[in-house]
Amino acid sequence: MNISMLKVIQPKLGAGQLINLAPILASQIHTSTPLCRVVSGKYRITKKRDRPLTYEMANPPHFIAHRKSWNSWNTSSLKDGLRRSETAVEDEFIRRFMTGTWHGLVCSEVIIKRQFNHIRVAAIIRRAVSPTKMYFLLGYTEELLSNWIQCPVTLELQTVNSFQDVVFKYI
């Protein structure tokens, strides 16, 4: 409520009622300075500097498209794109299914690339299981995701010996 509105209301109100509007007018004045600091999406530095970060985690969000890439590659987020919400839900489902199926083996973020009707899922996996079990998990994951999402899914996995091989820096 500004001063011009008060002048319109004032003739209709009595003297006692005008005093009751004072807290409303005072509550709309904000005098604090804005905090122009970007903190979301950054990892907090620990006291011992022993938290390992991968390359993707080490770059803050404002470096997307400069030093790091998007975790989902699709065209549904463009103007007039189709299936925006369905694509986001499917991507989250794929990420959770991958981390659950490859429990304790995924060392990096799961990257999802969509091209036409084909989905490619890329990740870095630890070599902690036998090759036969890894081939089984590969076929199991591709087959189930293809049946659930109703389009071909291909896993593009790279393996490393340990999680220490993907550590970029410690904070």
From TrEMBL:
Main location: mitochondrion
InterPro entries per record: Ribosomal_uS3m
Any one GO CC term of the record: mitochondrion
Alphabetic keyword roster: Mitochondrion, Ribonucleoprotein, Ribosomal protein, Transit peptide
One BP term from GO: translation
Places the protein is found: Mitochondrion
Pfam families: MRP-S24 (PF14955)
Family: Belongs to the universal ribosomal protein uS3 family.
Protein name: 28S ribosomal protein S24, mitochondrial
The species this protein was found in: Papilio xuthus
